[in-house]
Amino acid sequence: MSHVKNVLVTGGAGFIGGSVVATLIARNTAPVKDINISTVIRSDDQAKALSKLGINVIQADLFDEKAILDAVLNNEIDLIVHAASSFVLPLGLNLVRALGQRGKITGRKTYFINSSITTAFSEDGGWPEGEVKDTDNLYETEKQIGDDHPVRITDIGLVEESKAQGVEFFNVAVPVVYGRGSGEWKKLSTNIPAFVRKSIEKKIVYKFEKDGVCPDIVSYPLKETPSLVLSRGSQFYLIISGQLYQNPPAIHVADLADLYVVLVEKILQGQSIPNGENGYYFGFAHRLPWWKTMERIAAGLHARGLVADPTAQVWPSWEEAAAQLKWPVQHIHAMGAATGQQVAVNPYLLGWQPKWNQKRFLDSIDDEIQAALDEKPLESTLFVTIL
Ligand SMILES: NC(=O)c1ccc[n+]([C@@H]2O[C@H](COP(=O)([O-])OP(=O)(O)OC[C@H]3O[C@@H](n4cnc5c(N)ncnc54)[C@H](OP(=O)(O)O)[C@@H]3O)[C@@H](O)[C@H]2O)c1
């Protein structure tokens, strides 16, 4: 068993961080049930809402190095789950340095679980073509690519700073997340609610011009005829105009929160699991068939009388889509139609078992629509630094 008693979750008012907090609280088995949970949030309203959970709520901005150091030292934090920002290196650096300081004072190990983004490992996100596993040497490849992708800069910077500070580092790469979050504040994700709300506003459902395949699905609507069907074991890939398209990975928020909690559990149990340069965890359960999803959104909104056409139309341009959705134009391809052959290995080696699959996701699209209609939209601050 490890010595860790106090765990801090950042982004506790966010969709993912809020769900991690709720899942940690709900886990009534040792060793997780015995930890003290702290979270960092920014606004008074969020502080009020999260205080009801009976956890330690710290109101601070993660840019404030001194406030973060004080929070970590005063609350004797030895493990941080960082679910606030994958794009902004200084926030993670402040947290890792504070853990480093805590480790120096106590002479004991500290741990940092980061949230990265799977699209950084997709071809549209600048990753080389071909299969990529989380057990590959991803840190070295991120360094070799050497571009200005904010997620790669953050990944590399945090691997290196953790090493320098003697902090054990784990990096969960997060794909498209869906479902209703169990947190106290922001309950919904970015992608699907944005598509639903924009569709209602424009009275038309748009989809991106590019769609891919999901492994195991070969009969899929495509604009062009596939020139070749590749089969590897139970996986099938279509090659169109020489290009291999595979749809992006996805995960239900409950499964993702569970993955973070499994990592926390392993650390608390003192188990030795992949970390540092080898500590990448591709957190996904299945592929997300974009066109099928958008067709189901179109059907669901049409049935409610909210759009004129029961089928989805292609966005006039990628730039138009970025402007309408308020997403960074340089990342719109990766966010809207990322392709890549990411293979998740490490989470499954931990014994993590997601409960959602592609069929269950597609069958739940009506709930996704209803959730976007029920929940008050909360402005996301995720892209502020990029925009
Ligand atoms: N949702 C997805 O589909 C998805 C997919 C891939 C990766 N990710 C990554 O996962 C992470 C969490 O995503 P999410 O969907 O949970 O986002 P979210 O709902 O917007 O939550 C992020 C939270 O972080 C907080 N935060 C941001 N900057 C902060 C700062 N300087 N100080 C203190 N708090 C700060 C925000 O606080 P405020 O409420 O005050 O703004 C917000 O509550 C992000 O890094 C995101 O890039 C998400």
Automatic annotation (TrEMBL):
Protein name per its UniProtKB record: NAD-dependent epimerase/dehydratase domain-containing protein
Ranges in coiled-coil conformation: none
SUPFAM superfamilies (UniProt xref): NAD(P)-binding Rossmann-fold domains (SSF51735)
Residue ranges occupied by any NAD-dependent epimerase/dehydratase domain in the UniProt entry: 7-203
Gene Ontology CC entries for this record: cytoplasm
One Gene Ontology molecular-function label: aldehyde dehydrogenase (NAD+) activity
Pfam family, one: Epimerase
Gene3D superfamilies: NAD(P)-binding Rossmann-like Domain
